[in-house]
Structure prediction request, 424 residues.
Amino acid sequence: MLDRTLLRRDPEAIRRSLRRRGLDASVVDDLVEFDRVAREAQTRSDALKAEKNALSASIAKAADKKATAAELRPRLAEIDSEIAQVDAAGLAANSEIDQRLQQIPNILADPVPEGKDESSNVVVRTWGEPPSFDFQPKPHWELGEALGILDFERARKLAGARFSVLTGDGARLSRALIAFFLDRADRAGYREVVPPFIVNRETMWSTGQLSKFSDDMFHLSDWDFFLIPTAEVPLTALHRDEILDGDMLPIQYTAYTPCFRKEAGAAGKDTRGLIRQHQFEKVELVWLTPPEQSFDALERLTRDAENLLVELELPFRTVALCAGDTGFNAAMTYDLEVWLPSQGQYREISSCSNCTDFQARRANIRFRRDAKAKPEFVHTLNGSGLAVGRTLIAILENYQQADGTVRVPNALVPYLRGQIVIGR
Prediction:
């Protein structure tokens, strides 16, 4: 959520960010008007309360208190009535501000490229060369089914479309990736967490998932709980309503979790294979930092995710998302896109974002630089390190061989007990 003082201090910054995102900036005009009403109501209420206190004091000082009270009672009643009206108007204006501010996305950072959609995203760097095959490469679903490690038909029987069953070496490869990602996160200084996979409404709201993305969430209505869409949610909210010691920062967390999304906005997209599933797995990386460190932390976080792809020897590129493609919570985002031979293009495998103080304001996560300092909001960052299913896709497709087998990346051989090839 945006800093409300920004509405008074620099409303044009909010308008400018909305325009860059391709959104209607007129909502800021409404907010400025509501803020004017709220401030005038507060000023009038304070004046009325001061007048009431003065009249009450004059009654207390009067020689004939009873007579003075009787004389002033009509005016005191008028003041009480007007205070009630003014306070109600101020409360209504403040309520409108709070509700509308919740619908405004984060302020974009200056370095975010201009543009309306993904076609304007900017490639920052690339690593590796797409493999060259002397045979026609197959998509991962054909490879997986032929090897007996991916089963979509039985998944459809168990749960429906956009689910999968991994068996044998497919399940082992998935488990190997999870262990590999967590080990590398530990090596990079992240503290591993096993959070709940079901969270309450307050947790979802505090991390910006509600109400903007409510249509994409799996809601357990009987309990008013939600299946997590990403480990970013519980990891970021771990310190909700806390004031941290500044010496603790930065904090780096990692967690493996299943993730659950309806993909309501993706009808008809990537209907085959593992690209877009209702249930998938990720290892998430989350940072809490002082404000002045967050953009350096974004570069570090992105490099941590990139290093996983480098070690797996998977060709990828790092892309700075343009203004129109940057997510609701983010001030700036890098996407990592891995090469998929079956599609002849790069596809997202990780998204690394600096959310500045946007989530921290909702979650009320603050810190003190020293014991006497005023509490400040932390900055939060998150990124996939990596999405397990999409990494499995990339391995199957980039490491496939002419005979239909798949070579195991060198980095994963120790996690598969020395196995170097996945065959039927």
